Amino acid sequence: MPAKRPSLKKNRRIVLKIGSSVIASHDKGINEARLSQIAGEVSTLREAGHELLIVSSGSVLCGREILGLSGPPKTIPMKQAAAAVGQSRLMWTYERLFKPFSIKVAQILLTHDGIADRRRFINARNTLLTLLEHRILPIINENDTVTVDEIKMGDNDNLAAQVAHLVDASLLIVFSDVDGLYTEDPVKNPKAERLSVVEAVTEEIELIAGASSNASGTGGMATKIKMARDVADYGVTTLILNGTIPGLIKKAFEGDSVGTLFLPQQSRRSSRKHWIASSLKTKGRLILDEGAVEALISKGRSLLPSGVTAIWGTFGTGDAVCCISPTGREIARGLTNYSASEMMQIKGHQSSTIETLLGYKGADEVIHRDNLVIM
User: Fold this and answer.
1) So what's the architecture of 282-374 in CATH?
2) Helices 76-98 and 59-67, axial angle in degrees (round to 10)
3) pTM for this one?
4) Inter-residue contact 332 to 365 (CB < 8 Å)
5) What is the DSSP letter of 278?
6) What confidence tens digit (pLDDT) does each residue in 223-248 have?
């Protein structure tokens, strides 16, 4: 029997992620009519006592219109140029359409590198919380003009997850151009059923999302499922709605079974460990033996050099690395106490021999359990 949907009204702080396909199109530019409707929906939530932050795509599509391009930008420099001119148009539109509802907006541009550093992570958090205290609506986007990898991947889904973590939101609403997650691709199988509630993102759910092609934005359903899984570990509920249809937020808050709701996990990670697991890009891999895998997963131990059998990648002290089982599955990630070159010398050896092998010893552990997250 499917799980019953919990009431959404208890969620005070909400992140709303708006996909580019919801508010803009390649041939018509910004859909001001729909964006004005969204402004009204946001205003209703704020009047009910909720705090809102928006993660918005659309700058590249807006820029394409301004640059007079006949088709999507083909090169990374052209995409970044489109983002540069499009971002100001996008923010001007938000400011103009939210003004009738007496809502002031602020532009926030973030990068993964900007929140991978713990100090900058906290600075970004403090800025966002200060804006909320002053009843300012943050409009957040990725800084596409300087992020080459992110603009290739269409990573605003991941950015929305990071923002939910940044501000301790309890609900993440995703406006896409689909009605939710289906048992199969509804385009290929009209009899496919929409899943109303997902209790946990299992391998089966990931396979369903991976097979689905019913999302026209740059971030498809698979990235949205990963986002829902990541924030669930931090205690955040995710609701995927068809953002092209007005009024669905109101229906969801009234208890209607619209979209797909992903429930949070019961055991919530600490903020620091969630930052390690979700905000950092890994620089390398440590291949572990079965004994080390058992020690990490079942016994909550630190990772010692004796349990490492192979090293992949180039990383330095303090970088994030993946811990891989002998079967190739990522079982943990954490901050390493040794660089890749140091690890090559001490892997497979006892901690007592580190000083002899290196001429010094920084720590007994390759990754201390306080800096390690089981995935």
Assistant:
1) Roll (2.30)
2) 100
3) 0.76
4) no
5) I
6) 888 889 888 888 899 999 999 999 99
